[in-house]
Amino acid sequence: MAALTMGGYAFIGLQTPLAWIEILLLVQGLSIGMVIGPVTAALISDLPLEQAGAGSAVTNTVRQTGSVMGIAVGGTIMSTMYRRAIEPSLDGAPGPVQDQARVSAEQARHVATAIHRPTLAQAADNAFVHAIHVGAGWIAVIALLGAAVLLITLPAAGKKKGPIPEPDYEEARSSV
């Protein structure tokens, strides 16, 4: 579900109602939140009790590192796509205007207002939406690959475990 909602951002545009974006964010957050606990439990349950603390720490570190890497990769993809898409609209603009417009769509809109060039503002909006579409597609693919890895590896981990033996209460009483 998280991957599908991430892919859903590929269909938003400048006129998309904010409520639709909020719904995508809600479903995405719920789906990610609902999987973190069970996946962590599945990973920790395969460890011996004396290693559970270390396993929990490693799992948490990997999750946080993955979050940071996801933001970095997604941001890089979207920043690169924005710059490529805005570049043709900067022909003939002064150097400082070009530099400011390449930073972000907001900076491009600001400089477009200052120099009375509304076509630059429209180009920045279009470049930003294009960057979201491309970034959302790549992020959705990466998330689907992560889901596939979980589907392949977690059931296999669960099959390795046999039934939990019943404790022998008589033996425990006699040893006391």
Structural notes for this entry:
- It is a single chain.
- This protein is mostly helical and 176 residues long.
- 78% of the residues lie in helices and 0% in strands.
- The chain is built from seven helices and no strands.
- It has helices at 2-8, 18-45, 52-86, 95-103, 105-114, 118-160, 169-174.
- Helix 1 (2-8) runs antiparallel to helix 2 and helix 2 (18-45) packs antiparallel against helix 3.
- It is elongated and about 90 Å long.
Core attributes:
176 residues; single chain; elongated
Biggest beta-sheet profile: none
Q: Runs with pLDDT <50, length 5+? A: none
Into which percent range does the helicity of residues fall?
over 70%
Annotation, overall tally of beta strands? 0
What Rg do the Cα atoms give? 25 Å
Characterize the overall form: elongated
Series of H and E elements: HHHHHHH
Brief write-up:
This protein has 176 residues and is mainly α. The chain has 7 helices and no strands. It is elongated and about 90 Å long.
Compile the SSE list and pairings:
Elements: H1 2-8, H2 18-45, H3 52-86, H4 95-103, H5 105-114, H6 118-160, H7 169-174
